[in-house]
Amino acid sequence: MPDPTETVTDTVVDHSVDAGNDASPAEAMPSLSTERDVVFRSRNVNVYYGAFRAVRDVSFDVHKNEIMALIGPSGCGKTTVLRCYNRMNDLIRTARVTGSITYRGTDLYDERVDPVEVRRRIGMVFQKPNPFPKSIYDNVAYGPRVAGQKKGLDDIVENSLRKAALWEEVSDRLTDSALGLSGGQQQRLCIARAIAVGPDVLLMDEPCSALDPIATARIEDLMQEIKQDYTIMIVTHNMQQAARVSDTTAFFTADVHSENDTRTGILVEVDTTQKMFSNPSDERTENYVTGRFG
């Protein structure tokens, strides 16, 4: 695979993030050994859709091989924040990000950084399973093929399916349509598809909300198994799930504007999951995790 640092382009969306250094384009995406422990560092991040500010002043760090859960009521900006970390908001024409988000010490929104390379290193699993209308094999092999890889696809497919705890269930029917899998299997296939391109981080946007309790438990077990290889950020409305799977939790709420009833998401606090659910620092967090509102 060619050096990803050589493929840097302008961003798709206007932003106001100052790179703050004179790094050459070849340094615009770092090696994975840079800032080993801190994977993401966010400072005073705001997200706008046109003139509307959807998220205000978000600051926290995400560390290597941890699972961070983003929790909070509907409309508080959890998914909007999650999409900042692989620049999915770039795909929304009116979106604009201000503040600073660094990935292993490098500004994610530097104009020399290729958003496509960002999304290879920072994969995403969506709320609803979305397998391609292709075979199970071709779903997993799709990303490596797009990246130009021709050799070793069989090994990549097998290893990715094994990591996603799906190989034993599908190894004898790899040529079958992925659409014939159950919902939980489809979601694990989507995880395998994300893993196949060799990411560093997995973003998961409510990956279990469309699944039954048994399939949900499989996904939760899978997250615990693979966090030794990946850093994971998960958005969830299920507080019990956040308590079970995450190491760190960020709680968001929303300011409701009295004039037009629009909502701006705000970060209330970030802490270890154990502390957030047993002794939170902010009364709003305590009210939410105890079910008094939300």
Explain this structure.
The structure is a single chain. With 294 residues, the chain is of the alpha/beta class. 30% of the residues lie in helices and 25% in strands. The chain is built from 10 helices and 10 strands. A 10-stranded mixed β-sheet has the order 5-4-1-2-10-9-3-8-7-6, with helices on both faces. Strand 1 and strand 2 (52-63) form a beta hairpin. Helix 3 packs across helix 4, helix 3 (136-146) packs parallel to helix 6 (183-195) and helix 4 crosses helix 6. The longest helix has 14 residues, at 213-226. It starts with 37 loop residues before the first strand and ends in a 5-residue tail after the last helix. Residues 1-35 have low confidence and may be disordered.
